[in-house]
Amino acid sequence: MYNSACSAAAGGCSEPERHDRDGLITHETAVAPVEHDYSGFDIVKATQYGAIARVKELIEAGWDVNQPDSETVTLLHWAAINNRKDIIKYFLDKGAIVDAVGGELNATPLHWATRQGHLGAVVLLLAAGADPSIRDAEGCSCIHLAAQFGHTALVAYFIARGVNPDLQDRGGMTALMWAAWKISALDPVRLLLTLGANPSLADHTHGNTALHWAILARNATAVSTLVLKGKANMEVPNLRGDTPLTMLQPHVGSIWIGSKVSDRIRELTQQSQRRNPFVRMTLDKRFRWWTMIATPFLVFYLAGLIFCADTLIIIKVFLIGCLYGVAQTVGQHLFDENLMALLPLSVYMATKLWFYVTWLTYIAPTVSFLASLAFLTCSAGLWVCFLKSWRGNPGVIQPTQEQRFRTIIELSERGATGFEPAAFCSACLVRRPVRSKHCSVCDRCVARFDHHCPWVGNCIGAKNHKYFMGFLWMLLVMCAWMLYGGANFYVQTCDFNMDGGLWSALVAIGSCNPWVGWVMGNALLHMSWVTVLTICQSYQVVCLGMTTNERLNRGRYRHFQAKGGKSPFNRGPLRNLFDFLECSCCGLVQPQRTDWMQFFEFDKHVEHEPLLRPDNFHSNYYPNDRPPPPPSTGSRRRRRPPNPERELAALMKSQAISAMLKSGSKMKLS
Ligand SMILES: [Zn+2]
Ligand SMILES: [Zn+2]
Predict the structure, then answer these.
(1) Rounded to the nearest whole angstrom, what is the distance from the C-alpha of residue 234 to the centroid of ligand 2?
(2) Would you list the domain boundaries of the chain?
(3) Which ligand is nearest to the CA of 457?
(4) Nearest by Cα to 183 from 245, 117, 254, 105
(5) pTM of the predicted model as reported, rounded to 2 decimal places
(6) Where is this region: Disordered (predicted)?
């Protein structure tokens, strides 16, 4: 039965019901009373509707705050499920039992608040000593409920307050498993992995890991997050002997699992097959990395050799075509997406190496010693700037786990319900300094982020931007120097002049020394894009006082909107330049030195607004002269929490699955 249900889920006939990020719990809404007079309300209704004056009146008149109703539900449960924070505080002051168990599911007020995603109520209850590890009748503690319903902020807050992210419910399910099974959004799976959840744990009933559950649910986001970010083991069998690898193999190439996960599956499949040594060598990561680095060096050299060959032009064209074909074939078989990110960097390195060789071999004897010295000096500067841009820290915001927890607690307890993206990076779980951005290529937040540059294989940010600018200027000069040296070489050693036009000049170059011409062509090519980039970068830094990211996305930033799209950091061209270079010109100017890693100043006006979504803060958003929002009037008849056993059984019952099992067909996912 289980097997059939598993194959059905994995085969795509039917999907288990899944919740989105906000949690789709049924809201049994009551009709809001029209009148403002709550004097006729009983204590339960007054609590549900947030009528604190009536609640106080009844309690002062002698109502026992811990008096449960006929279904053992206490007043604190009602206050919690409706997020009536002032009433929760009042009940707690009056001695309400914080961990009172009630309702059909034997749940605590903390369970009720958690299911609804009421962070404000959860903060108050935890502060009053509520125990988040208590399990309800379904065997779930609060972190499991928060994960099931996709309440990411609550999952983060529970872990920050000391709940073990790997806490297992009665069936051995962890929050990560629940999120992988139920939630199709990126979080809370990504958040749980960032906060240290272990993707290798298996539940007691089926022996499934979180990745098994994600595959059963056909949850593409969770599968890719677990495989790529969580590095989940794909070769762990469950109690049926199925590994994530064997479950995913039939779907390699399908759109729903994505190309990166498909690549990973192919890699593992081929490794397990242990073919001949040559195939194994091509799968070796180091071999592939070195092939990626070496290919542009070789292609540059071989293309130059072909140009220099003493043969017909048509044969040269044919050979160049063959070289292109070989490079393409090597690329298709040995380079994956990660390696392709290295390509611009290795092209740059190869070009530079052959510049040096050409200068020293051909050009140096034809130019003065000073010209060669200037070339080498410029090259040394280029190396310094390149290394600082390539290997230097661009200003990565890298918090410790304790700092993450502190940030989550601080933001949660400030009185909000979800994290404001402008102030909080949900991938790194850090407060975002102003001008920082999360680099999607490197998966990290970088202070005063400019852009991710493939030519230096690094982000450009607060700490390496000026070196990147130095790199561009030096590269420009070096390319120009190379063109000057090459032209000088041809004038000195070949019978070269431009009198016969461009074509005759090219023929003269081809017959005299094609290699130098090939190198000059490359210098010209690089010079063109470097010129455009240098002009853009210099204009942005000096004239606009903004980064590339800000120029492209200024509409998203409130501090730019407030200035009509202009940069609030623009202090005029000269000051911008000195600030950027952090140069005081021997004390003549006073540059503004800003620590962009710690610059949260603009957050102040962000912080005055709710950091978390206001929909769960009805009491704050409804003035006293308006009727309160419809309350939740009960969870006793509320839908039971998701249960994998039950859902797998339900899947089996569906006619579509039965038909598929009868025919024995396997649906192809695409
Ligand atoms: Zn980030
Ligand atoms: Zn980056």
Answers:
(1) 28
(2) 284-335, 342-388+461-602, 401-460
(3) 2
(4) 117
(5) 0.71
(6) 1-20, 617-646
